[in-house]
Specification:
The chain has about 450 residues and is an alpha/beta fold. It has helices at about 20-30, 50-60, 75-85, 95-100, 105-110, 125-130, 205-210, 220-235, 250-260, 280-285, 300-305, 315-325, 345-355, 375-380, 380-385, 410-425, 430-440, 445-455; strands at about 1-5, 35-40, 65, 90-95, 115-120, 140-145, 150, 190, 195, 215, 235-240, 265-270, 290-300, 330-335, 360-365. It has two domains: about 1-150, 3-Layer(aba) Sandwich (Rossmann fold), CATH 3.40.50; about 180-425, Aldolase class I (TIM Barrel, Alpha-Beta Barrel), CATH 3.20.20.70. Helix 13 (about 345-355) links the parallel strand 14 (about 330-335) and strand 15 (about 360-365). The termini are far apart. Bound molecules: cobalamin (B12) and iron/sulfur cluster.
Amino acid sequence: MKVLLINPPTFQEEKPSIPPLGLAYIAGVLRERHFEVDIIDFDLERDKFRNLAKIIDDFCPDILGIAALTLQVDNAYTIAKIVKQKSPEILVVVGGPHPSSLPERTLREAKGNIDIVVIGEGEYTFLEIVKGKNLEDIEGIFYQKNNRIFKNALRPPIANLDELPMPARDLLPIHKYRGWGPLKKTPTTHLIASRGCPFDCIFCSEKSVFGNRHRKRGPQKIVDEIEYLVNTYGMRELAFYDDLFTLNKTQVLNICKEIQNRKLKIDWKTLSRVNTVDAEMLTSMKASGCWLISYGFESGSQEILNNIRKKQTIEQCLQAAELTRKAGIKFFGFFMLGNVGETEKTICQTIQLAQKLRPDYFQFTIVRPDPGSYLYNLYRNDIENAKISWKEYYAFPKKENKMPVVGTELSTVKLFQYKDAAYMYMSKKALLKNLIKGFIATDVYRIKKAFAILMKPQRCSL
Ligand code: B12
Ligand code: SF4
């Protein structure tokens, strides 16, 4: 049985920053059972995409597995179509966050070219497909047969993550990925120490894959993986991209202790949540090489934080920033504009919070209702009626696109203007850039805003 796993190209200009770890996990499980498997990341190696038909001819897979984030799913359909037209006998399976969120719709939109959608974690579900188990007996799939869609029961999350083999990173050109966000050292890559998150932020779609239950790997196994990445690939910086790395204090402390015990010289960074860190944890993280933490501060308005069920307070935001700085760790602040109930006033509160926090790095994004999130389900009819293409589901869309904005009276155009203003309040470079852009495009808003901010940089007015 031969299996080819594909990461489709995205519609973004920039190349992907990290490898498709989900596919590497699946390949690791298959290889452990002696199945022949390969991975192609067309998002990284886009020029190869033109040769898809030849690649399929050369490899002759029995099963094709395609990964899909929302902004990749249209290309997943294209791949499935090309493959089915050429070789209808190849079983085409898709998985990942998008099909996990909208399994039935994915099968319908694929117009018969996708046979099976895998929902949630893919390792064991896909293994059962490859082993040829009867489809009706496989938990965690929706499938299509004779123009009918069959919906099987969901599969419980993998209870013991330590039984999974190491992801098959060797099937990917691991040194070609540049890493995401600020970097201290290269080469760099990422790993996962736990899966799942018990929180319920309404904009988040992470649950569609790993669910609500936080499941952690053993610290020994995690640090074995770090050691392997350092020794085999010469990695000098690593990122933990768990749903919520800092949820379990004991686990974090144990990982940090183990890194130090083994005297591993590695710089690392992670994503976190302001109400899950404390001084002891941060000190230990710093001592083991952590140099950057990204926090979702999201909004400077407590009302908005409550609307989005963030379950954090402004006070906790300020405290996490202070503790992190004291521990000698830099921090990245994520802020959202266009949340449910957002007004000009609450955006000003967000900008003011950002100014107060003084993050080392920051990003303002306009809220987008991702499939799989509560927000998407809440506004499902509006979103689906607007017939927005899946390609638009990207955080940095061009202004003229039709990215869906829901739950606020503010228009997309206004939100984009306020986002520019937010950057101008935070950075002199952005101020200058916007001023020049304003003059070139005779954009009165930009010019006026830039001058207003120059006069009173600490007083937000939109
Ligand atoms: C690291 C990360 C990034 C990095 C790098 C992404 C990249 N490819 O370069 C950065 C920060 C740049 C990023 C950017 C974006 N990301 Co991101 N990102 C993640 C994160 C935190 C980890 C990804 C990861 O490695 N997971 C670990 C692996 C093991 O899990 P997995 O990939 O989901 O795979 C499992 C299953 O999905 C399934 N599976 C996956 N593929 C397949 C294929 C088959 C055939 C089968 C059977 C099963 C299967 O099995 C796997 C093993 O169990 C996830 C959240 C998360 N915790 O997963 C979000 C996540 C994937 N990102 C998300 C989003 C929205 C984005 C952006 C679009 C946001 C934006 N800024 O615009 C961009 C798009 C980037 C891109 N290249 O396409 C969403 C996706 C939602 C969706 N419906 O598409 C997620 C789920 C987070 C969220 N907010 O809900 N991202
Ligand atoms: S945004 Fe983070 S904390 Fe909130 S539900 Fe998603 S993973 Fe959990």
